[in-house]
Amino acid sequence: MATGGAEQLVTWRRDLHRLAELAHEEVETAQYLEQQLRAWGLDPRRPTPTSVVADMEGSDGAGPLVVLRADMDGLPLTEDSGEPFSSTHPGIMHACGHDGHMAILLGTAERLLARDFAGTVRLLFQPAEERPPGGAVELIAAGELQGARAVLGLHLQAGWPVGWVGLKPGPLMAYSDRFHIRIHGRGGHGSEPQSTQDAVVIAAETVMSLQTIVSRRVPPSETVVVTSGTITAGQTFNIIAETAEITGTVRTFARDLQAQVEEEIRRRATHIAAIYGAVAECEYLPGYPAVINDPVVVEEWARLLEDVATVEQPPAMPQGEDFAYYLQKVPGAFLWLGAAPAGDGHPHHSPHFRIHEDALPLGVTVMERGARHFLAHPPAQRTR
Ligand code: NI
Q1: What are phi and psi of 141, to 5 degrees?
Q2: 4: confidence class by pLDDT, cuts 50, 70, 90
């Protein structure tokens, strides 16, 4: 049975860190969470095989439903953080802080155990944030957001100091999509280019043309990234390549720009190939949509935290996060919680990744205050 406080948060976080599991395989993690929730007399359920959802009804009567979300999955990395509580699952590591998110949500639940509120708090432990299409869509399909008036989530940020909270109205994180271009030319002898359609030359020209989408087709006021991550072509130095493949990623913060960039990539790929008499196929695979925070929720949540944190407005970041799907359904917000470790820091998704555990108690305060406030003052319902 939990005794509360910072020490307990650290215990939960380290236990969950040791148990790191991949997307959709969060079996031991789910069991651990269920065990703790049951010990409090809660009745957790599994709307999907490894998700854990528990409702806490307030004793002060009927009221709105507020959803609090924590993601559960680790990453396919061999941990090299040097922490004494490193992952016991070979090749799998909590290298993004999701272990901390779960500990914070448990800590939040514990603070709400007195049920001294009106309405319902739903604890949503979500699998598979790291693997698109992501666990959020499954929980939405299972009806877990139905009737919710607000949804809140947070992410630890190892690049920012403990005590720092980042909250931003509107776009916070990007549409993060993939593209895949296959060029079909005609190969031949390296000394006879006139009888070929050189897939290497076409690929090179295509990559350079993609670079001008951002500089020439997108308004300078907008943030867009087009990155060609791989080019694969050719077998040896004196043979002209018949085929080439380009893969890359696109980050945008608005639906119309996402559509425009997709169209630009398709047009450039197919037309450049056509110039040389070759053919290009372009596949565009949408990833997570942009995380778009409700401005009213952001303003009110930020005000609640001013006396416990340094609340700042961060720039939008071109990373993806499937919390975006919840925000398409229900007003809410996603915030950054500073967690820079003592000593050398390492980026998220690094095998050396560490967080500062002093961030955990602030995370609990952030979620508890948000939950209580939006139970008492739910955001206006969207008309759809
Ligand atoms: Ni993450």
Answers
A1: -60, -30
A2: low
Query: Is 283 considered catalytic here?
Result: no
C-alpha to C-alpha distance for 289 and 37, rounded to whole angstroms: 31
Rounded distance, CA 270 to CA 113, Å?
A: 60
Cα–ligand 1 centroid distance for 13 (angstroms): 15
Would you say 70 and 323 are in contact if contact means Cβ atoms under 8 Å apart? no
Domains of the chain, with CATH numbers? Answer: 5-173+290-376 (3.40.630.10), 175-288 (3.30.70.360)
Known catalytic residue: 129? Answer: yes
How many Å lie between the centroid of ligand 1 and the Cα of residue 212? 31
CA-nearest of 250, 176, 184, 252 to 211 is 250
Helix 5-18 and helix 98-111: axis angle, to 10°? 140
Report the chain's C-alpha Rg in angstroms: 24
Among 73, 177, 242, 321, the one annotated catalytic:
73
Report the SS3 class of residue 31. helix
Nearest residue to 248 (alpha-carbon basis) of 198, 211, 199: 211
Distance in angstroms (rounded) separating the CA atoms of residues 158 and 304: 23
Specify the pTM.
0.88
- Among candidate residues 129, 198, 264, 294, the one labeled active-site is 129
- Helices marked H in 53-154: 98-111, 135-141
- What separation in Å is there between the alpha carbon of 70 and the centre of ligand 1? 10
| pLDDT value at residue 277 | 97
Residue labelled with tokens 């043309």: 209
Alpha helix segments (H runs only) across 276-358: 295-305, 323-329
Nearest Cα to Cα of residue 244 among 203, 216, 294, 275: 203
